[in-house]
Amino acid sequence: MVTDPRSAPAQQSLQLILSRNLISTLSTAAFIVDPDRTVVFYNEAAGDFVGMSYEETGKVPLSELRAALAPVDAEGRPIDAAELPVAIAVREQRPVHETHRVRPAQGEERSVEILALPLIGPDERHEGTIVVFWEHAGGSR
Q1: Are 20 and 46 in contact (CB under 8 A)?
Q2: Which of 11, 26, 100, 103 places its Cα 20 to 30 Å from the Cα of 139?
Q3: Is residue 5 exposed (0-12), middle (13-18) or buried (19+ Cβ within 10 Å)?
Q4: Contact 119/128 with Cβ under 8 angstroms?
C-alpha cells in the first residue's frame, strides 16, 4: 500500500503508467512530466545526475527539477523555462531534441543532449511528456 501521497499514482493515465515502467528500466536519465507540469517520476540515473532520488522527493513541480539542473546558455545566463525542450514539447506537442549546458547542484557544468517526447493519448489528448537526457559526447557546446 502506498502511504506517501507524493508518490501515489493518483489517477494517472495509462500512457503515464506505462512510461514510468519504461523509464524505470533505462540506464539513461529520464523523467516524466504530466500535463500540469509536475514531474510525476524520474529514474535512478536522473536522480544521480541531479543529486536527489525520486524516493526522497516524490512528485515535484517541473520548476524544482529545472532549478536542480540550472540550464544556461553559452554565456552562462539562465535559459528561460519556456525555451527548454520540455516546455516546447508540452506547448507544441511535438518531439524536441537540443543540446544545452546545465549546472546541477551536485557537480560541475556539463553539456547535455535533451530529448523531449510528448505522450499523446486517445482523442489526440496530451497525456504528458517523457524527457531523456545524457551528457553530450563532445563535452561542450
Answers
A1: no
A2: 26
A3: exposed
A4: yes
DSSP string, 42-91: E-HHHHHHHT--HHHH-SEEHHHHHHHH-EE-TTSPBPPGGGSHHHHHHH
Q: What is the C-alpha to C-alpha distance for residues 68 and 61, in angstroms, rounded to an integer?
A: 11
Is the full-model pTM beyond 0.90? no
In DSSP terms, which residues pair with 74 in a beta bridge? none
Distance CA(129)–CA(90), nearest Å, equals: 7
Residue 36 has, within 13 A of its CA and on its CB side, a CA count of 7
CATH class of domain segment(s) 14-135: alpha beta
pLDDT in tens, 39-72: 999 999 999 998 889 999 999 999 998 988 899 8
Cell of 38: 509536475
Would you list the domain boundaries of the chain? 14-135
